[in-house]
Please model this.
Amino acid sequence: MSLVDDFIIKIFQEYIQHRIAYEFNNIEVGKIAVTIVNILLNSKFPLSDDKIAMNVNISITDVRKILQILYRLGIVSLSRETSMTQPRYDYKWSLTKEQVKKHIFTIIQQVLSKLVRIVKYLSSTTLYYCPTCFSRYTIDEVYEFNFECPLDNTPLVQIDLDKELNFLTNLINNIKELLQSQGMGEIHE
Ligand SMILES: [Zn+2]
Model:
């Protein structure tokens, strides 16, 4: 496990806690979901829901509800095995560190695409602001208001976006480098 991997697992646990808490509108359930994904990550084999429930202090029904949401979100895998003891199938859950990594990088790529879109928008836009009330105006509004703030008649000033654009462009390049160093360099812009 590299430092990057440790970091990714931590981000993943945070993500799971918030996502599941949101899904159930309950912070405690978010924490239980983190326990469940940790159990799956530390197991070398896929686990049945009753095995998982034995290690979590809630009913198997609630464990199943959480697992089903995790499955629906594409986070955990479900496999079907022939039961050793009964004439039915056993359903087993699993989650690998590779899956966690892929999941986090998908989220990072979505954020990256958004950043790229923001940079494209900012590069092609001229924005103005009012030095008195700090309202922002687009170029169309500026013409409409005759280069004066409609709220206080202050002459409007063009915003210098170079700093923001430089910052965002650097951020994008850093994220791209991180993705490439992890073998996940395919960015769809
Ligand atoms: Zn103003």
Notes: The first strand starts at residue 47 and ends at 48. The mean pLDDT is 90. DSSP finds seven helices and six strands in the chain.
